[in-house]
User: Which sequence fits this backbone?
């Protein structure tokens, strides 16, 4: 069975600093996709970044980058230069027919 | 391009009633998935529809059902509402074609259901 684990229920970061949100996954399928979503208090899930299991390079999207370590089955999200608007819940997810989500990490950015 | 839209945004119902939620996907997307989000259980997959057929199903009782129309719009129905059904219901759309592990799902704003 596929599983996503996020071990950080909450994190604080100072504005303009970088932060890493942890995500580990488990699957026996060689083909899989890993996603990160942001959920502000309004509730909408916002797609941030995608990493495919066969991608050789780490994915990047603006201030977001995904530190993909396949052998360790980890897909950590790195947010550079944090902004106050980054305060939200962050979910790591894996797709294998359906999206399976971790429990989320609540990120708070301090001014 | 317009994003995923969900209606209504908020609903208040009483136990025993039924409710229908609607989701309009991004233009060109043929797959619509539904998720339930609660503080206790997190995000749970309900079902996925592709080309008017249910392609995947989660572990929810038969009170939860859905359908998809020829224009890819989808509806989700919950019959005989229970207090525990109070949740944020999210719908997501994607292309839905082959290579499913590369298929990014884009979410709507959600429908917040309160059962009294």
Assistant:
């Amino acid at each position: 069975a596929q599983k996503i684990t996020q071990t950080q229920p909450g994190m604080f970061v100072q504005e303009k600093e970088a932060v890493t949100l942890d995500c580990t996954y488990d699957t026996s399928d060689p083909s899989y996709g890993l996603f990160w979503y942001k959920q502000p208090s309004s509730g909408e899930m916002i797609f941030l970044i995608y990493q495919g299991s066969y991608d050789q390079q780490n994915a990047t999207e603006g201030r977001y980058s995904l530190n993909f370590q396949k052998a360790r089955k980890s897909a950590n999200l790195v947010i550079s230069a944090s902004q106050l608007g980054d305060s939200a819940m962050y979910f790591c997810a894996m797709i294998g027919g359906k999206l399976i989500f971790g429990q989320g990490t609540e990120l708070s950015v301090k001014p | 391009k317009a994003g995923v839209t969900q209606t209504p945004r908020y609903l208040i119902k009483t136990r025993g009633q039924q409710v229908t939620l609607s989701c309009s996907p991004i233009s060109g997307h043929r797959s619509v998935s539904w998720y339930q989000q609660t503080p206790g259980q997190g995000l749970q997959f309900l079902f996925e529809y592709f080309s008017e057929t249910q392609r995947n199903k989660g572990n929810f009782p038969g009170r939860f059902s859905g359908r998809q129309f020829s224009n890819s719009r989808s509806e989700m129905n919950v019959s005989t509402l229970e207090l525990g059904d109070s949740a944020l219901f999210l719908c997501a759309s994607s292309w839905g074609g082959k290579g499913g592990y590369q298929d990014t799902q884009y979410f709507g704003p959600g429908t917040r259901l309160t059962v009294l």
Q: What stands out?
A: Residues 46 and 61 of chain B are 10 Å apart (CA to CA). The longest strand of chain B covers residues 42-50. Chain B touches chain A at residues 33, 35, 42-43, 45, 48, 55-56, 58, 88, 90, 92, 100-110, 112 (CB under 8 Å).
